[in-house]
Each structure stands twice: as C-alpha cells, then as structure tokens.
Amino acid sequence: WSVVFLGFLGMEKMVACLYKRPNAVCRLICFPWAGGGTSQFAQWGKLFSSSIEVLSIRLPGRDSHPLEPFAKDMTTLVNGIASVLLKELEEKPFAFFGHSFGSYISFAVALHLKEKHGLEPVHLFASGAHAPHSEAFLPIKNLPICDLDDEDILGHIQSLGGTPPQVLQNEDAKKHLIHTFREDLRVLQTFFFEKPENNIPFSCDITCFDGSEDEPHDSEAWRDLTSGDISFYKLPGGHFYLLEVSNEIFLAKHITRCIENAGL
C-alpha cells in the first residue's frame, strides 16, 4: 500500500493534470521549456476534446515545489519521469509534445521507454528545437555556464521573449527564473545522444513546429530518428510562438488530427 501511495505522490508531484479525462483514448504528455513551469501546458487540457487527456510534466525546483533540489543531470531526470509515468503509459496510448528544452527531455524519455520497456509514443511533437544529434545543437551544449553571470542569462531569456513582464519586474521571481534557467541549461549539457549506425530509434510519426521569426533549427535531421512520417510547420511568431492564442488553437487541432490518424 505504501509503495502505491508513494507512486501516487510522485505522480501528483511530477505531473499536473487540470482537466482529468479518465475515458480519454490517448494521453498527451507535455514537457516545458528551460526555466518554464507547468501552468501553460496544464491549461492546454481545455483546448482538447474528451478523447485526449493532457498531462504537463512538472520538473523539480519550480511551481509549487521551489525548495526541491533541481535535477543534476538528464539521466536522473529521465529515470524519474519514466518511473512516475510508466503505469499510465502502459495503460493507454500516449503522445509527447516538448518545446525547446522540453523537446530534448521528451526525446530522452521516449528513447528510455523504447529501450527499457518497449513502449513508444503514437506521435512525437518537437517544437523550437534542433534534432538531438544535430551539429547545430552543439553550441548550446558548449556554453560555459559557470562563466555566465546572471545578467548574461537574463539577457538571453529576454531575447527569447515569452516571459511575463511581472516576473521580470519582481526581484525574487526574476532571481528564481535565472537560477532555474541556469540549472536547466546544466541538465541539457549532460544530455548525450549519438544516432546508432543502421538503427532508427523510433517508428512513430514526428511533427516539428517552429516560430517563423525564431532562429532557424535543424529540424530536417529529425528524419534520421524515425521510420515513420515526418512533417514540418512554421507558425507566425518568435521562439514562443506557441503562447499566441491563434497558434495554440492551431496546435491543438493539428495534434488532435495526428493522434486520431494514428488509428488508436
């Protein structure tokens, strides 16, 4: 009983689901961007029909758990997420959506589930991210985090956009955001993936989304990672194009269609 209870606590702590849909055909698991919390994706539940239940991953050290230690590396983070989600993912089909940093986490979790448990998403949605084995990803991984001061990190966060002004105007909130972003970047730099020769990791379809004004991402290289279909969409806006209401509506409709077409 205590093990079940602890598992339930882990689930409540690591996953936010504001719109519970026990009869949903499929779950959409959403992974947040660096420095980001769960609130945006948790609200996505209301954009989907009753056939899709939206779960938003809540990473340690933020939201209602600011005193928790941050994850030290990608492997620890992936193991934690996979163990908490495993029962749910064995129970019914699931799809993953990740934005930016969240795309890399969702890919790493999907890879872990495939290799260790033979489970695969029905669809992988990657947003605002390079393919994880792309050379374009290397500059991010080689940023000297320990040499970056808070002002450098804040400048980078502001250049990406997407942060509510009230966060930047509140000293404590701003400090917490900078600290969270730094810790997320540290985790990202511990993520290593080399595409194995003659081995395509996935068979599910992959869709890549990007903001039309964002720095270009190496999306093409995602083709190497699945034997399924791959498609690309550019939506109006910068790195945080997905915060625009019209884009959210497009994403929800498109994701729904992809999941329905997976023939569940």
Mean pLDDT over the full residue set: 89
- Enumerate the spans where pLDDT stays under 50 for 5 or more consecutive residues: 1-9
How is the biggest beta sheet arranged? 7 strands, mixed
Q: Helical content, roughly?
A: 40-55%
The rounded distance between the terminal residues' Cα atoms is: 33 Å
Proportion of strand residues: 5-15%
Shape: globular
Radius of gyration: 18 Å
Q: Structural class, judged by helices and strands?
A: alpha/beta
Give me the CATH fold name.
Rossmann fold
Overall CATH architecture: 3-Layer(aba) Sandwich
The CATH homologous superfamily name equals Alpha/Beta hydrolase fold, catalytic domain
Number of helices: 9
Describe the structure.
The protein has 264 residues and is an alpha/beta fold. The chain has a single domain (1-262), classed as 3-Layer(aba) Sandwich (Rossmann fold). Helices cover 41% and strands 14% of the residues. It is built from 9 helices and 7 strands, in the order αββαβαβαβααααββα. It has helices at 2-14, 39-43, 74-91, 101-117, 138-141, 150-160, 165-169, 171-188, 245-261, and strands at residues 15-16, 26-31, 52-57, 94-99, 123-127, 205-211, 230-235. A 7-stranded mixed sheet has the order 1-3-2-4-5-6-7, sandwiched between helices. α4 (101-117) links the parallel β4 and β5 (123-127). The longest helix has 18 residues, at 74-91. The chain is globular, with a radius of gyration of 18 Å. Mean pLDDT is 89; it is low at 1-9. Its EC number is 3.1.2.14.
